[in-house]
Design a protein that fits this description.
With 146 residues, the protein is of the alpha+beta class. It is 18% helix and 40% strand. It has a six-stranded antiparallel β-sheet.
């Protein structure tokens, strides 16, 4: 089966199925990316993070934003290079505004602030399927070629 260019980016991410928080990319270009992930109630962390009222941990929400905003956009920006890039998350400043419950679909939008010398910085926002803002801020990371 042939993958379209957006599916190829998601497929090339260096994460296993249990830790890949990108279902689909909706748009990507040299300036921005929009991606989607649905937090299923069977996710491994829900059984341990507030057992009687499961909530998605903030660190997982940051990881989802980093995978879409840094890893996917970074892969797109260096797609002409051979091999799989490695990603190193370097810093972030994220403000959380709402929680994410099981069975919530989130939409992550990231806009490139700069990309130079292998360092990518993006302004990032996460909303849910009802357009409620979940989190916003900025994050950066290094993209290393193997």
């Amino acid at each position: 089966m042939l993958l379209n260019p957006l599916e190829k980016i998601v497929d090339s991410l260096p994460y296993g199925d249990g830790f890949k928080f990108v279902d689909q990319l909706l748009e990507i270009d040299e300036h921005s990316v929009i991606g989607v992930y649905r937090f299923q109630k069977i996710e491994y962390f829900y059984q341990h993070h507030f057992r009687d009222h499961p909530v998605t941990p903030g660190v997982i929400l940051i990881e989802c934003m980093a995978q879409i905003g840094l890893a996917c956009l970074g892969s797109y920006l260096i797609q002409e290079k051979e091999g799989r890039p490695q990603f190193v998350f370097t810093e972030n400043h994220i403000t959380f505004l709402n929680t994410v419950l099981p069975e919530t679909t989130v939409i992550v939008t990231a806009k490139k602030e700069y990309f130079r010398f292998g360092k990518l910085k993006v302004l990032v926002q996460m909303i849910d399927e009802n357009e409620n803002k979940i989190a916003e801020g900025w994050m950066s990371g290094m993209i290393l070629s193997k």
